[in-house]
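Internal ticket - ligand job 118, zinc ion:
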Amino acid sequence: MKNTDTNKVRNLLLKREQLLTDRLNRIKTDLYHQKQAVDPDFEEQAIERENEEVLIALLHEVESELADISFAVKRLENNTYLLCKCCGDAIPSQRLEAIPTASLCIDCSERAALSQVW
Ligand SMILES: [Zn+2]
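stdout (structure tokens):
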């Protein structure tokens, strides 16, 4: 990967990171307001609790993507971005174009997916 490409990926990742951070803050604000507003109506409360679960699930999703991004940026800085973190082989550039936060080669990611199922 050429230096200019690395910069492009880095910019892409940082832009995505900014977007996700904004989203994270919005979710946190929503959650905070939900905790503040205690509705006397029981049914309303049940709905709110459901919303809260959705928000918390979203929060975890965004947080894990943010972690992936900061890991990818670190790997760019260490010049290990193109290498699989598991076996050290090169990650195909088509794969990185499709998933800029990929840190495993295809073989290792398939193995990881399999071990997650079990
Ligand atoms: Zn690998």
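Auto-summary: Residues 84, 86-87, 89, 104-105, 107-108 surround zinc ion (CB under 6 Å). Residues 42-77 form the longest helix (36 residues).
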